[in-house]
Structure formats: structure tokens, C-alpha cells
Amino acid sequence: MENLAEKKKAILESTLQLIKENGFHGTPMSLVAKTANVAAGTIYHYFDSKDTLIMELFSYCQYRMQAAVEQHLRQDMDFQESFFLRWISRCQFYIQNPEVAFFIEQFVNSPFYPRCSQAQSERPQNEIMQFIEAGNRHGILREMDPKLMAIMIHSSIMTAAKAHLDGKVQLRNEEFKQLAQMVWDSIRKL
Amino acid sequence: MENLAEKKKAILESTLQLIKENGFHGTPMSLVAKTANVAAGTIYHYFDSKDTLIMELFSYCQYRMQAAVEQHLRQDMDFQESFFLRWISRCQFYIQNPEVAFFIEQFVNSPFYPRCSQAQSERPQNEIMQFIEAGNRHGILREMDPKLMAIMIHSSIMTAAKAHLDGKVQLRNEEFKQLAQMVWDSIRKL
Amino acid sequence: MENLAEKKKAILESTLQLIKENGFHGTPMSLVAKTANVAAGTIYHYFDSKDTLIMELFSYCQYRMQAAVEQHLRQDMDFQESFFLRWISRCQFYIQNPEVAFFIEQFVNSPFYPRCSQAQSERPQNEIMQFIEAGNRHGILREMDPKLMAIMIHSSIMTAAKAHLDGKVQLRNEEFKQLAQMVWDSIRKL
Amino acid sequence: MENLAEKKKAILESTLQLIKENGFHGTPMSLVAKTANVAAGTIYHYFDSKDTLIMELFSYCQYRMQAAVEQHLRQDMDFQESFFLRWISRCQFYIQNPEVAFFIEQFVNSPFYPRCSQAQSERPQNEIMQFIEAGNRHGILREMDPKLMAIMIHSSIMTAAKAHLDGKVQLRNEEFKQLAQMVWDSIRKL
DNA sequence: AATGAATGAGGTTTCATTCAT
DNA sequence: CATGAATGAAACCTCATTCAT
Hints:
Chains A, B, C, D: InterPro entries: BscR_C, Homeodomain-like_sf, HTH-type_TetR-like_transc_reg, HTH_TetR, Tet_transcr_reg_TetR-rel_C_sf. Four copies of one chain form a homotetramer. Chain A is mainly alpha-helical. The first copy, chain A, is built from ten helices and no strands. At the C-D interface, helix 6, helix 9 and helix 10 of C face helix 6, helix 9 and helix 10 of D. The structure holds a DNA duplex.
């Protein structure tokens, strides 16, 4: 995933940017080609179809997200600290990569999403779920279907990031902590 | 809003259904016309363009949601009871009207959404915000920008409903209560 | 022709005005209806089709032109004076009724024109031709097919009027006389 | 202008022919495509829109006319001879290229024309005007706004050609000379 | 006589995709 | 590998016309 042909990467990045700005509708292949400085036909060397391109873009975004989050993880933390760090670093990733956030949200709310393999579509939640199950083994968290809990947590991250990106609120250190605390209090045993 | 010409309503409902199933892309005007049993041109009697149709559909969904929620409200409840009732009844509305849920989520994550007036786009959150401000006057809720809190609450409702509709979890009375409790614990002063 | 039903006249006049501003293309029946303050269906009480409306409009314009020109004719003039008067008064009619001028020119250069009866299409030239034949009987005019001469004269009138209406030149008394003289010198025996 | 891509030229020529036969109305892009033996979409490779196509067609006609007229010019002629030659060769060009004549006349009487740049729209008259100004320097022509005189001359050429093409008169050598003489007598000092 | 909602054929244009170079 | 002219199905939309009221 790190050694993408230069042109392939240019195509992915251009598409990501254009979809952020114009949505799926407003992103014809001809425009992707122009923005990526390649010929229209070249795109079809790397992707079978527009659908394929978009599906791969979703993988590409998940990969970028994963890579970013891993950088922040450390071992010497207790469970709560670890939760705060994860929540905040994910949220900051979306804020620093708005085109990823907008693309993912459009994608998961489109007819593309149900066509992903489960393994693929649930990967981000799964990582959170493993974390939850670790918490459960220590009896820290409240009783709840871990899958549902993971979904709620993931949504809280994305929602906060989008609110910031849409300019509806401004998130600073203070607010990140408030939000992480808020979500923490919603999942822990009181 | 209650006396929509019969054909106009048929067009709105058909579009809603089709977008749920096929997304914006997969919903050409010709298909809307066929599904609504009107001629293609008739749509343009009621809506200036496809864009207009979709924008009006958003208003229409907000209206339907509002009307549904109001049915459940009662006066003789304390603040927490009222919160639970509201959270659960909204969530159930989305579950009982999946086409509304799917449409709204597609819409707010599309380039259409930023083109709505603020007044229009923030109406659902505003209603929640007023509720929050009432809570604040009683000193019940934790310190936090009410706008942000409203956004987080609204998102939790939609997220839970979608998880259910996508078949990822199954929400029953038990789970509704758990979820409402979870969100309640995240906003109240501990 | 003088007792046109009020609505019929409103339709004709609206069409004339709209075609001047927007051309045939830019003049849909719905717009004619709105401008004339009648319902779309009403137009079809008075005219079989849009084509019929346009054909009748041509007659209507010829009638208006004829009526205007006749007002100016007097008996006690020699041939040349009469020519000048006719040339100038026709030219002024077009300038004072630009919508007629623009419509006629569009009409005669459209596929409608060849579908007119000869009698109809040549009426304006015929009147000029009778005048020419009178001149010929007095041996005043140069040898030339009277039909061709009539066409050339008629065209000179319209051309001058359009140049004025398009703002390319400004015609005042002086210029009218120059022009009439110019055309007169082109048809008389030198 | 001489090395137009083969397909582009086919599109222009087909459009020209079709507009002659059916007018602007009766010339849908689909028919242009079929007649030019290209796909509908191909037209939009070369022209932004139907409007653009028609505007470019006007330039193309002016270019063809210009090229044709230049072939006939010679140096060793006095002013009057030169005038006759120019008048007649232009008139014959229109007669030999009726689709150009019909297109130009439709175009200049349509809402397209006012949208041309002045430079563009007055080019044919300008060339005549320069000729007139040369005549004025020799004191040969009568006193008159050269612009107006140019317009009248240009119109006489087109009018004669159209009368012939419409079958209203038949122009042969004899008549060309008569007409050129007639116009010459209308502009020269008597 | 008059209305205007409704029709649907057909117009212009877009765009994912192909293929000869 | 890469190009981009060419394709043509299908999208959005218009508008002359009809007909129940």
C-alpha cells in the first residue's frame, strides 16, 4: 500500500479531493483525469471502473487512517488514558484530513457501502471492539453489546470532527478533553 | 404541508423510496416518474429541477420527523424521563421510517447540505438545544457548548437507528433503554 | 381584421414582442400565454397550432403595415414625390414598429416563409410593383424586370430601418431624404 | 482555419446544410451527428454547446466568403470596374453557396447576432467600407455616411442573390450587370 | 369560452468507457 | 504504459398540445 505507482496515487488523491468538493455526482472521470494530470484512459489501467476506483479509495482511506492512529499508540498507559488518546487522535486525524472524513461519510451512506465485504466495512469498528473487550475483561465498562458500543464510539468521533469541519463548533484542547470525557462516562461503569 | 397535491406527494414519496434503495445516482427522474405514476414532465410542474426536488424532500422529511416526535410528548414528566422519551421516540421514528433515515444521512453528507439555509439545516438540532438549555437552567447538565452537545445527541440517535437498520445490531426495549441511559450519563453532571 | 377578439389580439401582440426579444426559439407557448394573460389552452381556441399562430402573425404584420402606409398616401403628387413619400413612410413605419420589422425579417428567413402562398408572400412587393409599372408607363424608370426592381426597393427600406434599429446608424430627416434619393437614382432612367 | 480537423469540418458543413433546409428549429444535434457521421457526443468535443456551434459556423461562413472574394480581385482596374467585379463576384458566391446565404440571413436576424462582437459582426461591411473610403478620396461617390452606404450595398448583394435562389427571378450575366449598374448609380456622384 | 394540470416525445448535454495510436 | 478522440446510452429538462373541469 505504500508503494503505489505515482500515477495511481495521484488518481486516488485527486478523486478524494474532488469528491470532498463536489460529491460523487460532481466528480466525472474526465475531471479526475485532468486534476491528476493523466489521460482519461490511464485511469482504466489502474482501476476497472469508476465503482472500483471508489471502492479502492475507501480501502485507501482506511489504510491512511490506520497508519495515522498507530503512530500515537503507546504501551505505558492505563485503560482510560489509552481511551482518551485514541479518541482524540482519531478525531484529530479526521480534522487534519477533511477530504478523508467527507469521503468516508459519503461512502458509508451510499449504495456502495453495503457492497463492501463485512471484513472490510467493519475494520475500523473492530479495532475499537478489541479495545472494548480488553476493557470488559477488567470489568471497567458497562454491560452492553460491544459491537453496538464500538459503533457508538466511532460515530462520536466522526460527528465531533465533522461539526468542527463544518464550522458549527470549534474544537480545541479543552473541547477534545470534554468530549472524550463525555464519551468515556457513557461507556464506563459508573 | 398537509395538503400537498396528491401527485406532488407521490413524487416525494417515490423519490424517497428510490433514493433509499439506489442512492442519488441511481434515481433518475424517469424512474421517479414511473414509480410515482406520473409523466416525466409533471415532476417539473411541481419542482424546478432535480436539485429543487431533493432540497424540498429534505424539508418534507424534517416535517414528517417533527410531526412524529410531537405525538409522543407529554407534560407530566421530569427532565430525565423526558429525555429518555425523546431519545427513544426519535430513534424509533428513524427505524420505522428507514427511507427517511437513509435519505437524511445521504443528504447531510452531500454537497446539497451546505446549500441549505442555516435555519433549515439546524432545525432538528435546535429543538434538542432548547431542551438542553432548559436542563442547564436546572443545573442538571455538565458544562459544555449546548450546540456541540445537541449535535452529539442527535448523532447518537441516528447512529443507533442506522446500526439497527443495517442489521448490525438488533435494538429492542432493553437496548433502547441502555442507549438512552448511556447518552444520558454522557451529558448529565455526574 | 380590426375586430379581433381582445384575447386574440393580446396573443398576437405578445408573441410579436417576445419573438422580437427572444426569437422563435425563445418564445414557448407557455410564455406567450403568461405574457398575454391567458391560459395556455386558450391560445388553442384561436390558433390551431404554434405554426398557425406564427403564420397568422405574418398576415397581421402585413395588415398593420398596409394600414399605416395608406394613411400617408395623397393624390396630388408627381411620381417622384410619391416614391419619396412611400419609401420614407414605409421605412418610418418599421422604425416605429421594431417588433414588426424584426418579426418579418426572422419570418422571411425561416422555413415558414416558403410555405406561405405566393399571393401572401408577395403582397408587399406587389404593391410596389404596381407603382413601378405605373412609372414604366410614363417611361420614367430604367429597363429592368419590375419584380426584381420591387424586391430591391423593398429590401432597401427594410435594410435602412434595421440599421437604424440596430444602432449602427442614426436616421434623421436628412438621411431619409439621402436614402430615398439614392434609391430613386438607382431605378430611374438617367 | 484551413486545417480544421476532418470531423469538425464535417460537423460544420452538415449543420450548414441542415439549417438551410430546416432552419435552426429543425436541426437537432442528433441529426447533425447522423449527417456528419459522428456520434452525438463527438460534437461536444469540438463545440461547447449548440450555441457555440452556430456562432462558430458564422465565423466559418465569413471566412469562406472572404476567401472566395479575394480570388477575384485584380489590381489593374479603375474604381468603377473594381466595384462591378466585387458586387458581382460576391453575389455569385452566395448563389453558388446557397447554404451560406441562407444561414447568414437566418443568423443575422436571430438573437445570436447581437451577441457577436462588433468586430466580428461588421467584418464584411468593413471591407466594403474601406472600398468606399477609397472612392471618397477620389471624390467619386456621393456624400453619405460610409457605414450606411456599406450596409446598403451589402444588402443589395444579398437581396439579389436570395431573389434568385428563391426562384423569384433568374439572374444571368445581363441581370448582374443591370444590378451592379443600378447600385453603382445609387452611390456615385451624378 | 376559458382554464391550467398533465402529458410524453424529443431536445440538449454528460460521462463512463474503449481503442487505435 | 500512456494517450485522448471518439462513442452512444442515458441523464435532465422543455414545450407544444390535450382535456377534464
